[in-house]
Structures are given as C-alpha cells and as structure tokens.
Write a structure and sequence with these properties.
Helix content: over 70%
Strand content: under 5%
Order of helices and strands: HHHHHHHHHHH
Shape: globular
Radius of gyration: 19 Å
Number of domains: 1
Structural class: mainly alpha
Distance between the termini: 15 Å
Amino acid sequence: MTRRLRLGWVELMVTAARFLVLTFGISWGAWALALAAGGNTADPLVFVLWVVGASGPTLAALVMRLFGHRSKRSARLAAAGMWVPGALLAGLLPVIAALLVTGAAADPATVVARAGGLLPVLVLALFAGPLSEEFGWRGVLQPALRRSLPPVWTAAVVGVAWALWHAPLFLIAGSYQASMGLLSVGAAVFFANLVASAALYWFVSERLHGGVPAAVLLHLTANAAVNLLVVRSDHTAAMQMAVVVVLAALALGYRSATGTSAGSRISAR
C-alpha cells in the first residue's frame, strides 16, 4: 500500500511538472518573441504574441487533455448556492474595502467610454485571466498538488508559480504590469497579492466544490471590479492585498460544522 501511495505521489508531481514546463514554455516563449519583435502591444504581431502567451496555462491544460490527462475535480452544480456567492464575495470584498478606506473610486462610465464600450471591457475581463489561465492553474496544477500536499502548501506553490509566470509582462509595453515597473513597490504588492489570492481560489474551487467555474467567476469578478471601480495606485493595491491576506487566512483556517478543518478534509482525499 505504501509503495502504491508513493507511486501515486510521484505521478501527481510529474503531472504538475509537465504542466509547469508546458505553461512556462508556451507563455515565456511567446513573450520572448514579442520582446524580440519590439515589445509593444500596439504592434499587431506583438499583440498576437501577447495573447498567445497569456493563454499559456489554458493551452497547456488543453495539450495535456489531448494526451489523456483528466482532472480529478469538477464543479458540483448542487453546491452552486455556496461557491457562486463565495466567488463573488472573494472578488468584490478587497475592492470594496479599498474604496472605503482610500476613496479612490473610478467613474465606470469613463472607463467604459475609454475602452470603446462595455462589451470590450467585459470581453477583456473574461479573457485576460479567467478563460486564458484558470483551466490550467485551478484545472490541472491545483488538483495535482492538493492530492499530495496540505491546502496551505498547495495554495503557496500555485501562488508562487502564478506570480512568477507574470514576470515577463513587466517588460512588454502596453500591459498592465509594464505600467508599474518590475522593481517598483506596485510590482511587489502585485506578486504578493497573487500568492495570497491563490488561497481564495483554492477555497472556492476545492472547499466549496466550485472547480474551474468558481475560479473563472472569482477571477472575472476581481478583474471587472478593479477595472471599473478603482483608481489604481500603490495605496489602493496595498489595501486590496491586505484584505486578500486576511480572507486567505480565514479560508485556510475554515472549519466545517463538524469541527474538521478544511485542510484535513481535503488533504486526506
């Protein structure tokens, strides 16, 4: 039995490693070509390469599925009454807190007008992160890790990989990351926020049984809220991160009505 468990653990780690190699290879490879082509998304070729790179996690998941990989976790529609509100709250609360504390509210109508209408805003918010990433991070990597690691380590590993994956975007003009600068306070807050946020994605997708749909909804809610409601600054970003850290601690320490910790329930599976 011990040998079988050890072989199962190795298989899961190999799955995680394959996903990471594919994801970073696709994304960083495309972004390297984008930089070689001038590194500005105003150029159509660079923009296409940026899109391909941004889709790396989901493309990697698709490649693995074509070669036989199947995720061991799917959403439970019967539990939607839990994971839908959970994903919406996890995406909105950090933004609401930042607005209440800093008062740095944006005018949604102005944001929509500058983007050319509500449809482009919603399409970008849905694609740039939710659809282009979550089928990989929460559809392949997280399920592979959580079957062998406790929740805090699962979230930490996914969060660090997720944050590191974004690094080349700080060099591509026209991306949100490039507007901060790689060695800035804003960049440090951005990376820390992603690592902490991974616990919230774990919570809604695993603990609340929302799977990838819950992760997509959380990512979409957070993107849309930040883009439409907040004037971005280091101050507001730090406030959002602080709330995310608190929510992440609560999510990882959550106990069910039976008194069993979320961590022991999931890691035992």
